[in-house]
Amino acid sequence: MPQRSQSKNYRWNFTVNLLDGASYWFGSSFISAATIYPLFISKLTSSLLPIALVSVVISAGWFLPQLFSARITEAQLRVKKIAVGWGFFLERLPIFLLVFSGILARSHPVLALTLFFLCVLWNAIGAGVVPQHGWRWSLKYFQLKNAVPLWD
């Protein structure tokens, strides 16, 4: 991308990314896998298995897709299309749909628990598939690649 185009879009990109990141992490602070998810599950069932399963689903959903998607995203010169195009549908949308699990909780607890796990799994897999592309830039920007000799 030419320098002129970068400077033209810089203010817009900075503002949109700042608002997106701030709102996502603000919202994520209310849905902790260590506290809020287990509390919600305990209201739906007396079994301890789903409570233990939630952290496994989140961890496996985040780490396993990276093994399969790393080669694809590494080969891309620009990952904006993947991160922006897939990011909403794979990461943000399941969190919005998670609200329906809370709405169904009183009348249909089994359906609410099923919907909850589907949304959490969908979000975790989405977070693993969407490329985490900022680390390379931050290493160069902050001169950390000299301090951490693992990356070239």
Describe this structure in words.
By secondary structure, the protein is mainly α. It has two domains: 1-30; 31-141. It is 76% helix and 0% strand. The chain contains six helices and no strands. Helix 3 packs parallel to helix 5. The protein is elongated and about 60 Å long. The protein starts with a helix and ends in an 11-residue tail after the last helix.
Described by the principal axes of the CA atoms, the overall outline is: elongated
Distance between the termini: 23 Å
Assembly state (oligomeric) = single chain
Strand content: under 5%
Helix content: over 70%
How many domains would you count in the coordinates? 2
Structural class: mainly alpha
**How many strand segments?**
0
Largest sheet: none
Rg, rounded, reads 19 Å
Order of helices and strands: HHHHHH
Number of helices: 6
Low-confidence blocks of residues? none
Mean pLDDT: 82
